[in-house]
Amino acid sequence: MSAIARRLLLVLLLAGSAACVDAASAVDRSDAAFGDAHFISYEGDQKWPTAPGTETIGSFAVPIYIGLPTRPYRVIGRIYDPRTTGIGVVGRVFAEGLFSEKNRQRDVANQARFRGANAVLVTDDRRVLEALDLSEREVRDTAPLFDHKDKVVLAIELE
Q1: 3-class SS of residue 99
Q2: Structural domains of the chain, count
Q3: In terms of domains, do 4 and 40 share one?
């Protein structure tokens, strides 16, 4: 067996072990993860900016808005990728190279739907980042969508 094949096998075994641990720890579903899309709830002021036009991706469990929606909304929580240190960073790099953005969008939409949201908001609007007290680095390091590394991903409820 070549060195590359052994390394790939090791990565697959580690990934499988991590999935088993995640499945066992998510029994109560409060920490449920869909792929690498994790969730943290938001409690606070619900005065959010809107905009006249946005791109909408509607082929998932809930629509994904790239940019601020036209209608008022309530933020339920933030969807993020927790892999920011150690082996998690390596897994993140592998995921970016091996898995499609469509799969990541699906996971984000499924996480939002599971939390009771009826849409996902993907934005880099400064007002939203400030209200959530997020730095640009934190957003970049935890972005669950690789095509939108500089944007925060929110589970929202459109009014």
Answers
A1: coil
A2: 2
A3: no
